[in-house]
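FW: tagging you since you asked about this chain on Friday. Here's the raw sequence from the shared folder, copied in full. Didn't touch anything.
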Amino acid sequence: MKTPKKLFYCLLMFLLVLSAAAIASAQTAEKKSLTLDGAERMIAAAKAHAAQVKAPGGVIAVVDAGGNLMALERLDGTFAAGANISIGKARTAVLFQKPTKVFEEIINKGRTAMAALPDSFFTPLQGGIPVVLDGQIIGGVGVSGASSAAQDEELAIAGAEAAKSFDGNPQMISNLPVSYFPKTEVDEGFSKGAVLFDGSGGRNYMVHTSRREGPGMVEVHTKDTDILYVLEGSATIVTGGTMVDGKPIAADEIRGREITGGDSRKLVPGDVMIIPNYVPHWFKEVQAPFLYYVVKVC
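HL: got it, structure written out here
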């Protein structure tokens, strides 16, 4: 079996990343993670503080522990570019695990080489604060567009401080275990096509180790979005268009005989495709064995 490429790990890092300690001691490890409710609660706290100090505006961004945007709110009167700046501050605070004021001061003292780092993940401007709970960084808050850089940081601190009330509240943080699947289990899944992870624990995603030996019926999923990553073989897939003779076969699943119209593409190893829910898709031709991961997100 071929080793998945880096792009696949970017799409599935939340499922397949594991630490050396986890390998040695256990197959699962608990780590707190920020929920959407928690992110929104932090924005509310920052907004409340902005009203208290009569801040003239501001954009408040909250990212998770990986630097991915979870929630953002732009207060009235804030300049348009504030959104990107606040996201950059929050992401920098998380990825470098320090308030962004630290980096602004380092650059101001003459270490200008740091300013050459890609701005896609480094925004060395005061106003970004990491969110810490029980010694773990679970996210970051970034603010831009208040009356000053100091006030940006003040509002970000107010948002980050709100996380202290999250401990023990399952709506604000998650203690779901990391899932690890050894190569032998993955290989066995691909040998016949199987569900690798079934979405247990109330999670909104599943992972399939999929195998096709020939063409299939047209499929429509009314809830799931499919993310495909091809490992081996090739297939011609038709997406969109109109399903012919479609019939429900199970809850939220429809099957049909063929597609009229639509777009035809040949999938080869390394390709990634995202098929939103309600979009018909049909593996019309298959060069077997066709092996591919499917992440189903609802």
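FW: The longest strand covers residues 281-297.
HL: agreed, and The chain is about 25% helix and 35% strand.
FW: great, closing this out.
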